[in-house]
Design a protein that fits this description.
Blueprint: H1 18-27, H2 34-44, E1 49-59, E2 62-71, E3 80-85, H3 92-104, E4 114-118, H4 123-128, H5 150-159, E5 166-174, H6 177-191, E6 205-209, H7 215-225, E7 239-240, E8 243-244, E9 250-253, H8 255-258, E10 269-275, H9 284-304, H10 306-309
Family: Belongs to the peptidase M14 family.
Protein name: M14 family metallocarboxypeptidase
Domain Peptidase M14: 30-311
């Protein structure tokens, strides 16, 4: 990974054009299989869920089907809960934590909720263990109706009809050491801006939506995850990744303004998880467990406080 500020693609101070994006794309190599590691597990869920294709990514010569997993007996009288993972393909536990929840935990909510899950929003990025898509775009800055990112546009079309009816949306992410060594330098180079070094928090944290933060909901998720893995402390300046810590393990973003996945709907309970897989205090299994615990806690809270959700 690249640790210095001089990213080897482009000219310092000048945003990338098509030539630089094309050069960047030639660097990317397929490192794992979406079909074997993700799609096969999604297909196995057909025994208990409705599984269907909601779109397809076309990055010639490759084509990737996009799948949702949905409660088979959808009941309009039940609350709608949304689960997304793999918006950033390199954030492994976001994908596998979502699959783990679907395989081992979701059955306990049958007949109590309408569940719609997308375990892997960005399969091209998953295979290359990358944050961006093939056009050097970050899907999690591009969730809007006219999105230039195929991944974001497809999920927007899927979830937008639930904008006013969704009760909860939890989006599973990771913060990794490569954020600082590769992706932030690449972002600075792509946008023609100077690279500003940051910090990587050691532990799990949440990004609440500043438009509706719901502190009790966030803390319920933190409390459950704390049984599985450690919660990230604030940096000495009281921030996590440069954002003020508003409560134990919680920061806030304006999800809709930033084009984040959690802002697609008006679900009153919404949050973005951030696991730290590079911590010496966490294992891959622990990271998956933390994601699944966060999903359970989010659903349990939304079920316990439906009146607040409809307020």
């Amino acid at each position: 990974m690249i640790a210095n500020a001089l990213y080897p693609i482009g000219t310092p101070g000048q945003p990338w054009g098509a030539a630089e994006v094309a050069e960047w794309r030639t660097w990317q190599r397929r490192l794992r299989s979406y079909g074997d590691e993700v799609q096969d597990r999604i297909m196995a869920l057909r025994a208990n869920f409705e599984v269907a294709e909601y779109g397809r990514l076309e990055y010639s010569p490759e084509s990737y089907p996009l799948f949702f997993v949905k409660s088979r007996d959808w009941n309009e009288a039940l609350p709608v809960m949304l689960l997304t993972g793999g918006v950033h393909g390199y954030e492994t536990s976001g994908v596998h934590g979502a699959l783990q929840f679907l395989e081992h935990d979701a059955a306990r909510y049958e007949g109590r909720i309408n569940l719609l899950a997308v375990p892997c929003v960005s399969p091209w990025g998953y295979e290359r263990i990358h944050r961006w898509n093939a056009d050097a775009l970050d899907p999690n800055r591009n969730f809007r109706a006219d999105s230039p990112a195929q991944e974001s546009a497809a999920l927007w079309r899927l979830l937008s009809p639930l904008r006013d009816t969704a009760c909860m949306h939890i989006d599973l992410h990771e913060t990794t050491d490569t954020d600082e060594s590769e992706y932030r330098p690449a972002l600075a180079a792509r946008d023609g801006k100077p690279f500003q070094p940051g910090t990587i928090p050691d532990g799990f944290y949440l990004c609440a939506d500043s438009a509706r933060p719901e502190p009790d909901f966030q803390q319920a998720v933190i409390a459950e995850v704390a049984k599985v893995t450690h919660i990230a402390p604030a940096d000495p300046d009281g921030t996590i990744i440069g954002s003020p810590v508003v409560a134990h393990g919680v920061i806030e973003y304006d999800c809709r303004k930033l084009g984040l996945c959690a802002g697609i709907t008006d679900a009153p309970y919404r949050t973005t998880t951030e696991v730290y897989p590079d911590s010496p205090r966490a294992t891959p299994a622990q990271c998956n467990d933390a994601q699944a615990a966060a999903v359970r806690a989010a659903i349990d809270y939304a079920l316990a406080y439906p009146a607040k959700a409809s307020a």
